[in-house]
Design brief:
Nuclear Transport Factor 2, Chain: A; alpha+beta; about 25% helix; five-stranded antiparallel β-sheet; ten-stranded antiparallel β-sheet; Glucose Permease (Domain IIA)
């Protein structure tokens, strides 16, 4: 059996050894006497063995911390997930009572959770809604404290181009552009191009956008940075910019907003079933009556959007119009929406609405022959053709900010120009 040398003895051995070396180096005579005096003084200053604490060399024992991982499944709720991992309703209540506890009430299949426990006691819960956002709940006495962590992905700029043979979506799929980016592309140019009626074979688009990566793994798509759309030979260009006020939107290279004050069509429609016509034969009454709007045919339940910012003047029903809404957009402009199946939640007279907000749903109420939205556009009380009326523009870049805008967007516009010229040259070969 080996024997441990006490700490005091180790120190003595070291001190004496060092002193002997000193003596040997210093030679004999007076120096020897002085060395002996030094040794005696050092020994006197050392603590006595009785005053040194006993060393406990027995390793401490405790319950190890255990980490558990889980993923939200179809039909799960927070209580069932906690129960599955060995935790009770008290922990559920304590965590959901924290600042970010409400996030756990909106769990969806695929979301990830990780637990740590000490013995049977829950110590931490980490809940990830996606790869970049997580919420951590740490035990604090009988309760929990919560924090939110948002991680920044790596952004890689990439590029797609395609020519249109039949539709924008077919061309996008051929180019490898995902559907959500195709929708964003259409939304950027929707004030200038009707993607149902205006698209022609030979139209083409060029789009510069972001791919997102986290820890080397692709996790999704970011913003469209710049885009170009050629429709019937006319070229439209847009670039993203965040204004000094914090508004992120799309502008022409000259700083003019792509956004108009009104949507050209406030519903996603399949076709125009009846055009603006002041001498139309009414399909039900069989009399010649002015048709002061446009009928957009669409399935029942299709969302209807507010064409512009404004305040609802009327949201009611009558025999001819069915359910209908009238919105005032300042002193000059009024829009009307007829034959709705129902109003969106909260829609009533006096309510303010924003452009693009859902206000109701396509129906077939009133005197109609099928489901559609009848849409009217009035300027100073006069009905105008919604398809051809000159729409007022939204706020563009101010003169004071124009130089900063040009500098901030220059690189994206140069990249877009280079890519489009390259593709055009390749197509001409």
């Amino acid at each position: 059996m080996s024997m441990q040398i006490p700490r005091l003895h180790k120190r003595l051995t070291l001190v004496i050894g060092c002193c002997l070396v000193l003596v040997g180096l210093s030679g004999l005579g007076d120096n020897t006497y002085q060395a002996e005096q030094d040794i005696e003084q050092i020994l006197a200053e050392l603590p006595s063995p009785q005053t040194l604490p006993e060393t406990d060399i027995t390793p401490a024992t405790s319950d190890p911390t255990v980490e558990l991982f889980d993923e939200v499944k179809q039909g799960d709720n927070l209580a069932s997930i906690f129960q599955r991992n060995g935790f009770g309703a008290r922990d559920v209540h304590a965590i959901t009572s924290t600042d970010y506890g409400k996030q756990l009430k909106e769990i969806f299949p695929g979301h990830r959770l990780s637990f740590t426990k000490l013995g049977d006691t829950l110590q931490t819960l980490t809940y990830s809604t996606d790869r970049l956002t997580s919420y951590t709940f740490r035990r604090n006495g009988d309760g929990f404290i919560a924090q939110k962590d948002v991680f920044q992905p790596e952004r890689v700029t990439t590029y797609k181009h395609s020519s249109i043979d039949s539709s924008l979506f077919v061309a996008s799929q051929r180019a490898g552009l995902p559907d959500n980016l195709t929708m964003r592309l259409a939304q950027i140019f929707q004030w200038d191009i009707d993607f149902v009626l205006d698209i022609r074979p030979g139209d083409e688009f060029f789009v510069l956008f972001e791919e997102l990566y986290f820890e080397g793994e692709f996790i999704g798509y970011g913003d469209i940075l710049a885009a170009e759309f050629v429709n019937q030979g006319k070229r439209y260009r847009a670039v993203q910019y965040q204004t000094k006020s914090g508004r992120k939107d799309y502008f022409t290279p000259e700083g003019i907003s792509m956004r108009k004050a009104f949507l050209r069509a406030p519903v996603e429609f399949s076709r125009i079933s009846s055009r603006f016509n002041m001498r139309r034969l009414h399909p039900v009454r069989k009399t010649v009556r002015p048709h002061r709007g446009i009928d957009y045919a669409a399935p029942i339940g299709t969302p209807i959007l507010a064409a512009g910012d404004g305040r609802i003047n009327t949201a009611t029903r009558n025999r001819a119009n069915g359910r209908y809404i009238i919105i005032n957009h300042g002193q000059q402009f009024v829009t009307k929406y007829l034959h709705l199946s129902k109003f969106a939640r909260g829609i009533k007279a006096g309510k303010k609405v924003k452009q693009g907000q859902v206000i109701g749903y396509v129906g077939a109420t009133g005197l109609v022959t099928g489901p559609h939205l009848h849409y009217e556009f009035l300027v100073n009380g006069v009905h105008m053709n919604p398809r051809t009326v000159a729409l007022p523009k939204a706020k563009s870049i101010s003169k004071n900010e124009l130089a900063e805008f040009t500098l901030a967007t220059r690189q994206h516009m140069l990249l877009l120009t280079a890519y489009s010229q390259q593709m055009t040259a390749m197509a001409a070969e």
